Amino acid sequence: MLYYLFDFLEKMDVPGAGVFQYISFRAAMAVFTSLLISLLFGKRLIRLLQKKQVGETVRDLGLKGQNEKAGTPTMGGIIILAAIVIPTLLFAKLDNIYVILMLITTLWLGAIGFIDDYIKVFKKNKEGLAGKFKILGQIGLGLIIGLTMYFNDDIVIREKLDQQTIVENKEANCRTESNDIFKQEEEKSFKTTIPFVKKNQFDYSWLLSWMGDGYKKYTWIIFIPLVIVIVTAVSNGANLTDGLDGLATSTSAVIAATLGVLAWVSGNFIFADYLNIMYIPNSGELAIFISAFVGATIGFLWYNSYPAQVFMGDTGSLALGGIIAVFAIIIRKELLIPLLCGIFLVENLSVIIQVSYFKFTKKKYGEGRRIFLMSPLHHHYQKKGYHEAKIVQRFFIVGIMLAVLTIVTLKLR
User: Fold this and answer.
1) How many domains does one find in the chain?
2) Distance (Å, whole) CA 53 – CA 73
3) DSSP string across 259-307
4) Is residue 167 part of a domain?
5) Cα distance from N-terminal residue to C-terminal residue, the chain
6) pTM of the shown model
7) CA–CA separation, 381 and 333 (whole Å)
8) How far is it, in rounded angstroms, from Cα 18 to Cα 9?
9) Distance between CA 326 and CA 221 in Å, rounded?
10) Residue 86 lies in a domain
């Protein structure tokens, strides 16, 4: 909203109003504002939750220090949601389709998580919202994102020109312009970035090339189900990771900062050319949203780090994972998710492996056996006697390493 106000003021020749045209300035303001909201609003919300006795019900899993968490205020994800949405509304261009999709994602999954937490806390139902309804909600969001990306004419890319044409354009112009490097016309495309490959673009429509002429119009058969799977998997991965004080929050902050860098370079033709990645017009505006996301998660850590004063609950964890998934899909970096979101991936896999192996051995030997002492993986290390603060710090370090490796893959081909 402030963007439009200052845009109007600039047209009226008000000195300094033009600073809002710079994405870097608005991104910095979004970080600062989200941190401020997290710190100030968070303190008041925690007091309110304590007053309303909105405390966490803890099951006895035999984990050290677990019973001490009973009664800790939950539903703190409201802090994160507010700290993301408010700065985005203030500083981003609200007619940008990418920003609109991210706001829908945040509110959609935040609402599903809120309903789940509400049932657990106020209805005293430990199971919360039935799993099938959560999955349906995630599928619904995946459909919205997939269909919008497929049919919306504003979601386009600009292909790079061949090397000879680029050289000729640079020789003819003393300055490097986007039209010297990328094609002038924007086009609908379902290409994405793949790591470790020199020609690092993959077109999903290629999977349907066996269908003959006109096969590209059926790309939705591949693309939309893939979007649904990614949104569901990453959202649930973040939800499973949210089991120790500050674990999901710190991990998400690192992932988001990395995605912010990728969005920045994808929306800037100079960096896109240097890194040899696709140029996505108008995607740079996402830097404001993801800056608010980073500020919100770091601000929430003020209260969520060990020992936690508040838990985010599903209100926060489902939204965090969904935001990361949709953001990666929008900037065409979804195939980097297994690497960048490696923590979420192993948490998901540890549960799948544990449950599958238990069922297999029970059927075969009549007695269920386990690979991990407990799943998700962070509880396995708790069972081994590691303090949860140490587990969180080590997962955080691994997350940073994965983030650095993700960015490095853009040049390692």
Assistant:
1) 1
2) 7
3) HHHHHHHHT-HHHHHHHT--B-TTGGGHHHHHHHHHHHHHHHHHHHSSS
4) no
5) 42
6) 0.91
7) 31
8) 8
9) 18
10) yes
- Torsion angle, alpha carbons of 191, 195, 197, 201, to 10: 10
Contact 341, 234 (CB under 8 A): yes
Classified as helix, coil or strand, 194 is: coil
Query: Which residues 6+ apart lie within 8 Å of 409 measured at CB?
Result: 195, 196, 336, 339
**What average pLDDT does the structure give for the chain?**
87
What's the rounded Cα separation, in Å, for the pair 299 and 389? 18
Q: What is the pLDDT of residues 217-262, one digit of tens each?
A: 888 899 999 999 999 999 999 999 998 999 999 999 999 999 999 9
Neighbour count for residue 286 (Cβ, 10 Å): 30
At 124, give phi and psi (nearest 5°).
55, 35
Query: What 8-state DSSP symbol labels residue 175?
Result: S
CB 406 within 8 A of CB 336: yes
In a domain, 176, yes or no: no
Ramachandran quadrant class, 124 (left: phi over 0; alpha: psi -120 to 50; beta: rest): left
Q: Judge whether 255 and 341 are in contact, CB under 8 Å.
A: yes
Helix (H) or strand (E) holding 30: helix 23-51
What value does the mean pLDDT take over residues 278-303? 92
Q: How many CA atoms lie within 13 A of 78 on its CB side?
A: 18
Of the CA atoms within 13 Å of residue 316, those in its CB half-sphere come to 31
What is d(CA 215, CA 201) in angstroms, rounded to the nearest whole number?
19
**Domain region containing 330:** 2-153+218-408
In a domain, 91, yes or no: yes
How many angstroms separate the CA atoms of 196 and 202, rounded?
12
Instruction: Give residue 165's Cα distance to chain centre.
Output: 37
Report the C-alpha gap between 288 and 293 in whole angstroms.
9
* Omega cis (within 30) before 307: yes
The Cα 2–Cα 29 span in angstroms is 11
